[in-house]
Every structure is written in C-alpha cells, then in structure tokens.
Specification:
single chain; mainly alpha; two-stranded antiparallel ribbon; 39 helices; 2 strands; elongated; INTS5; Integrator complex subunit 5; INTS5_N
C-alpha cells in the first residue's frame, strides 16, 4: 500500500540477505563455482528461501520502477561490491528481468558514486586504484558484463546517450564527470570498449567534436595530457572498428582531408588534438611492438595488441592510403605499416611489400616500398625471398589483374636497375632473388596479353642469370623469349623489341639455335622480306576444285551421243588441282623490313659476342663474332635449308658431281631466293672463321645453281638477271670474308656487273676449281691466342696463280673498262 516508504527498506534487506547466503554457502560441497553462472542460478532458484527473497526484491523494484528505482539499484550495487563474485547469479537474474531499467540505473548510480568519490583522470590508467576510491565501479562493470551477452544493443544505446547528453550546456558536476566515467568503464572492461567504440566514432561529427572541444577547453594542461594518454591506451586495446578509428583520426588531423563546407569545418584545436593522438598512438604502438620480444623471453606468451590484430585484415587499404602521398598522412600510415609488419611477421610484412610493389605508379610511390624494406630487413631474415615468392604465387594463382601484373613487373625492373646504396639495399638483392624464379616468370612471356608479356620480358632482361638452372627450364625460357621477340616484330613495338633483345643477349647456343630457327620459320619470313606463307589445306587449290564426278558425267553423257556403240566413256576427273596459288603480296613496307633485319641481326651479333647488351650496331662491325657461336648459326642454317645433309660433307667435289645434286641445289637456291635473310646470316657466319666451312653444302648448291644459270643465259649483260647477280656477288664476298678464298679471288665480285653472263660463269668455275683443290676444312685454320680468333695462311695452299688465268683473260678482254681495277687481282 505504501511502496515509496517500504520498498527501499525491504529490497535492501532481501538483497543483503541473498548476498550473505551466497557468500556463506559458496564453499560448501555441491555448490558450483562462481564462474558456472547458469548452474549456480539453477541451484539457488531451486531453494524456496532464496527464491522467495528474489521475488520480494523483484516486487519492490517493480513497484518503484516508474518513480525512483535508484534506492533499489543502490542496494544491488552495494551488495555486489561486498559479495561478488558469489553474488553474480542475483545480478544476472535481476538484469534479465529488468534489462533496460537495470542498465540505465546502474550507470546512473555508478556515475553518482564516481562523482562523490572524485576519481582523478590519472586513476583511469590504474583500475586497481580506482576500485579503492570508487567502490561501485567494479560492480557496474560486472553487472554490465553479465548483461552484455543478450543486451549489448541496449548497453550501447545507453552509453551513447550518456555521452551526447554530457556535451550539452553544463548544469552540474555529474555532467562534467560523465566522459571520465565512461573512459573508466572502457579501461576496466574491454567488452564495453568493443561495444561502443565503432559507433562512438561514427557519431563524432564536426558539431560533436566542437562541443567536445569546448567541454574540455577549461581543463588544466596536465589533466588534458592524462585524458589523451587514456584515449591512446584505449585505442591500442580496441579491436572492433580499429580501421574506422584510424581513418577518423587521420581524416580529422589532416587538413586536406577535412570537409570544409561552411558549418562543418573542424576547429584547429581539434585537428591538433587528433594530430597529437596519432603521434602518441604510433609511439605507444612502437613500445608495445618492440617490447614484446623482451617480454616473450620468459614463459609468458607475448602480449597481444588488439588494435594491430584488427588491422591485419586491412593491409591493402593501408597501402592504398599510403600511396596517395598526402603530406603527413602517408608518413603516419607508412610508419604504421612498419609496426604492423613487425608485429605480425612475416605475413603482414610480405603483404605490405607486395601491395606497395603492385600498386605504386611512380618512382616516388615506389620509394615507399624500398624504405619499408630498409626498416624491416634489419629485424627480419628472408623477407625479400618471401615477398618475391608471394608475388609469383599471386600471379600464377590468378590473384592479380593483368594491369596490376604489368605494373608489378615494371616496378620490380625499376628497383633492380636502381643503384643501391650498399650490398644490403633492396635493389642489390632483388635481382638475385628474382633469378631463382626465372622459370616461373619465363612462362609469362607467352601470356595472351601483349602488355603482360612485354613487361615480363623487361623484368627478365634486367635480372641476372642464375649460376645453375635446369636444362629443361632453360629451354622453355629460351623458346618463350624467342617467340616473344618475333611477336613484337610482327606488332612493330619498339619498346618490346628492345626488351626482348636485352633478354636474349646472352651467349648461349640454345638461344642462337632458337632465334635462327624462328627467323627461318615460314610464318616469320615476311618480316625480313621473304615470301609470305602459302595457304594450306583443302582451300589452297583452285576455286572450283571441289566438284562432283556424278554431275560431270551426267553433263558429259548428255552432250555426247553414244547410242549404237558398245563403248561407254566416263569422266574420271582432273588430275591435280591446277596451278599452285601465288604468294600473297608482302604486307611489310621496305623501311619496316630493313628495321626488322637490323634488329634481328643486331641481336644475333650481341649473342655471338657474349651477351653484352649495347645499342644496335651495323652488321659491318662483326669482326669479333665468337667462332663457336658462328658455328651454331651455321649448323642451324644447314639443318633448316637442307635437313637431309649431314655436317660431315665438308669436302668440295668435282664439277661433274653437280649433275647428281641438281634437285637439292635448286631447292637450296629457291630457299635463298624466297628468304633474303639467309644471305645476311651467311655473312654473320663468315665473320667467325672457320664457321663458314660448316655451310659447305649450301655454298656448293648456290654456286652450282648460279653457274648453271650464267652458262644458260643468253642476255647481253648480267644486269638483266638482278637477283642472280646480287647472289653471285654476295656469295663470293662471303666466301672471301670467311677465309675460304684468297683475297685476289675474293675481289672478283666487284666486276661482275660489267661482264657478260658467260664470263661470270667462267669466273665462278675458277672459284669452284679452287675450292675443289682446297676444300673448306676447319683444320686449315690456326688459332691466335693473343686475339682469340682463327686465321688462315693461304701461302700453305697450292699456288693461286693457276686459278687466275681466266680472271686475267677477262680483264684483258675488257681492258677499256676494267683496266683501272687490274691491280686488285694480282697474287
């Protein structure tokens, strides 16, 4: 009948009695431990006495809930302070019955007690000291902790309400102490901190920040510093919403990132405060991270940093923000990336470097990756190999887009080419690490995207070759590189040609073989002025080749009258398909052909000289071609042009022998006529004596065919057969350059254009006679150790004079035109 007078007294008596009973019988046999809250609650609620006391307190609280429930809640808090944790089952049951009332009134009573005892801000970092000065604070934390599992939304809503109401016009001391009180709860309860942190940050609009600034503007400097230290401590202990908190601090502290719309601008003091918080946060994180190593020397596990644990999943976002290079903003986040990498080594370290290398678009941005590596390499071993391994795995597992792959390759190549400050720099070590993944990167030379293949070619061209590599892997890389070279020639891509040339500029026989075979392939012949590849298959014949014999015979028998005859005539079809299709016209411009030939021959020359990359140079500077490399080119030439001939056929037979090899000689001549690059390759082989000896069968076939042509020619001058004249001149010049002919015979091609065809035939016949008597054998060459080259002493051969009779007769006959040149043909 009178709850206002009796409810506080009766509720205090009942709640105190339940507390005494709980503590008294806590150690009895059969009573569950205080941590087993559900079992303990079932035990006490099955006892009629305690159940009746609970009903009495519940009725008292119900009767006062709409008027003044603080007296009942105060009794609950006082008892909780005295008998916790044995009293927790009572708190759990009452909180479940009146969640909203208990949450709001517990916080209100806790705040009143906090104001009465006057906890200083410095106590907030020391919960044990605060517990002694503010006894009920621990009970508040405990009660809210019990309710958080089912009523976290209500707790969060009430905490936010208290925070925002405290920022209004100052009315009393309790309102001023609300924020310190909430900070105290957050320090003592990580659960409450996680419940409110993310939503609290979202509610900190510019207007709220201005109110918060005004609220604390009058505090002494020492108290403000203590408050900032508390905030930094809480941020380090925050896990949920850590990235949102970081972005809020950075965006608020960074002037360029703050919204400057009228009415929404943030006060400069707020920015300075956030700047100060970020700097102290980084300093505190640095202490926590680097002190973990000393703390873990004992048996205790390293102390966790929840803030960094949560940021592990946001490494990519941190890298993206860092690469924006916005004043101090990127410096803070770059430092945080370093701390996160050390804390979560090695996963975060490799992730951070991987994202920086992949997403950087300028040298300034790429420098952040090298700076981070410089910081981390001092405390982490094998960081760079692990990072490169992650890059390779991401590429082959499809974790990177093609655009990012291109950017990654360009960035890695740029770092390799940077001049490092020492042997420990990233650029000095990256090349050696990348060479361990040469096979994995080489496969990307065949990528369907030309940009990816070109970027892979650039990266491989600047990587040093490993000391050892599996032959199978090497062959795959070489084939891929050669294929890429001819692809960029087809596309006329100058940068791609440059990258591929640098990649293939290594003195390896397999590279030379693949390059020559690729250049002589019918699909690439058109690049160098050769005839385009003929169409193949059923469509290569005449347009009307597919006919029906039945239809033909019907028309045939209808047109011819065979009545009265015993004979029947049937049309059996047409033998063959008619004329061979003509070669399509070349799609290459003359300038493009010259450019392609120059690029290809320059690459071959560099390969034959030992692989040193240099700018393209004319083919005339081929005096230093390595003899072994030239031999490889010679062997591949013979195998490509005339595959049925072995390298043992070096001897030069008599002229009559050409009658047995007419078909082969014509085939050889046709190949040289269809592909002008073969003559250029012969010149290259001739520059490395005695390699031209191994092309003996090609020289014989060409010479025999040209002799037959000039003998049968009925033209009045040689210029009427321009190709045969050019072939005759270049053949004799190559044989002279390759030291197969003495100089006096090797100069005769200079007068071919002023002679009649039969005179050219006679001169070539004298060349044949000389070669027959002085076979092109490598044994006739002597090695000069001081020059590293082979040379041939023609004085050891038979007298050259007897092979000059025809030449001198021709000169005498044409003395009026060739008299001035006669001095060049004296032995």
């Amino acid at each position: 009948m009178n709850p206002k007078a009796w409810a506080p007294v009766v509720s205090a008596w009942s709640i105190d009695l339940m507390g005494q009973l709980s503590s008294k019988y806590a150690g009895r046999h059969g009573v569950p431990h205080a941590s087993s809250l559900n079992e303990l609650l079932q035990l006490w609620m099955s006892c009629k006495a305690t159940r009746t006391l609970m009903d009495i307190y519940t009725q008292c609280l119900s009767s006062m809930i709409n008027t003044c429930p603080d007296a009942c809640v105060d009794a609950l808090l006082d008892t909780s302070v005295q008998h916790s944790p044995h009293f927790d089952w009572v708190v759990a049951h009452i909180g479940s019955s009146f969640p909203n009332t208990i949450i709001s009134r517990v916080l209100s009573c806790g705040l009143k007690d906090f104001c009465v005892h006057g906890a200083a801000p410095v106590d907030l970092l020391f919960p044990s000291a605060a517990d002694k000065r503010v006894p009920k604070i621990a009970s508040v934390v405990g009660i809210l902790g019990h309710l958080a599992s089912r009523h976290s939304g209500s707790i969060k809503q009430e905490l936010l309400r208290m925070f925002h109401e405290s920022l209004g016009p100052m009315r009393d001391q309790q309102q001023k102490a609300t924020v310190p009180f909430l900070l105290q709860l957050a320090v003592m309860s990580p659960m409450l901190l996680g419940t409110i942190s993310a939503e609290l940050v979202d509610s900190l609009k510019p207007s709220v920040l201005s109110q918060l600034h005004q609220h604390f503007a009058a505090l002494p400097r020492e108290d403000l510093e203590n408050m900032v230290s508390i905030v930094v401590h809480l941020i380090c202990q925050t896990s949920a919403g850590a990235y949102r908190i970081l972005q809020f601090l950075v965006n608020t502290a960074m002037p360029a990132s703050v919204i400057t719309t009228p009415g929404l601008a943030v006060h400069d003091s707020v920015r300075e405060a956030c700047d100060r918080i970020i700097q102290l946060l980084l300093l505190n994180l640095q202490k926590l991270v680097y002190n973990r190593g000393t703390a873990s020397l004992g048996d205790a596990p390293p102390r966790a940093v929840p803030f960094l644990d949560e940021l592990k999943g946001h490494v990519r976002e941190l890298c993206v923000e860092t690469l924006r290079l916005e004043r101090k903003r990127f410096l803070w986040q770059h430092q945080l990336l370093g701390l996160l990498s050390v804390y979560c080594t090695p996963s975060c370290a490799t992730d951070a470097l991987f994202y920086l290398l992949t997403l950087a678009r300028s040298q300034e941005e790429l420098g952040l990756a090298t700076q981070l590596y410089a910081v981390l390499s001092s405390c982490m071993s094998d960081l760079l190999p692990a990072t490169v391994k992650k890059c390779v795995c991401q590429i082959h597992m499809g974790g990177l887009s093609e655009q990012h792959m291109v950017q990654l390759f360009h960035n890695l190549a740029l770092i390799v080419q940077w001049e490092g400050e020492g042997p420990a720099s990233m650029s000095a070590q990256l090349g050696a690490v990348l060479s361990l993944h040469l096979y994995d990167l080489g496969q990307l030379l065949l990528h369907h995207n030309p940009e990816v293949a070109e970027a892979a070619s650039l990266l491989l061209s600047v990587c040093p070759m490993p000391q050892t590599i599996r032959p199978a892997h090497l062959l795959v890389i070489i084939r891929s590189a050669v294929h890429q070279f001819f692809l960029v020639l087809h596309r006329q891509c100058p940068t791609g040609i440059s990258y591929s040339s640098r990649l293939l500029s290594a003195a390896m026989k397999a590279i030379l073989q693949q390059l020559v075979e690729g250049a002589l392939h019918p699909g690439n012949a058109e690049l160098f002025g050769g005839l385009a590849e003929l169409p193949t298959g059923d469509d290569a014949g005449l347009e009307g080749a597919r006919v029906s014999l039945l239809d033909i015979n019907r028309r045939f028998t209808a047109a011819v009258n065979f009545s009265g005859s015993v004979w029947s005539v049937f049309h059996a079809g047409v033998i063959g398909r008619g004329l061979k299709p003509s070669h399509p016209p070349s799609r290459q411009e003359p300038e493009e052909i010259v450019h392609n030939v120059q690029n290809f021959l320059s690459l071959l020359v560099r390969c034959c000289r030992g692989g040193c990359y240099s700018a393209p140079e004319p083919l005339t500077q081929t005096a230093a071609v390595n003899p072994e490399a030239a031999k490889v080119v010679a062997v591949v030439l013979v195998e490509s042009v005339c595959p049925d001939v072995t390298n043992s056929e070096l001897g030069w037979p008599p002229e009559e022998h050409t009658r047995t090899t007419v078909e082969r000689d014509i085939q050889i001549c046709r190949r040289f006529r269809d592909n002008p690059l073969l003559f250029q390759l012969l010149r290259l082989v001739a520059a490395g004596p005695p390699a031209l000896c191994y092309c003996s069968v090609l020289l014989r076939g060409l010479l025999a065919t040209l002799m037959a042509h000039w003998e049968a020619s009925r033209h009045s001058d040689t210029t009427s057969s321009p190709w045969h004249l050019h072939a005759s001149c270049i053949l004799v010049a190559c044989m002279a350059e390759g030291s197969l002919l003495p100089p006096v015979l090797g100069n005769m091609h200079e007068i071919f254009h002023q002679l009649v065809p039969f005179e050219v035939h006679l001169l070539l016949l004298s060349v044949w006679d000389y070669m027959r008597d002085n076979s092109p054998l490598p044994q006739k060459f002597t090695f000069q150790a001081d020059k590293g080259l082979f040379f041939r002493d023609f004085s050891r051969d038979c007298d050259v004079g007897k092979y000059l009779c025809v030449l001198h007769n021709v000169l005498h006959k044409n003395i009026d035109r060739l008299g001035l040149l006669s001095g060049r043909f004296q032995p």
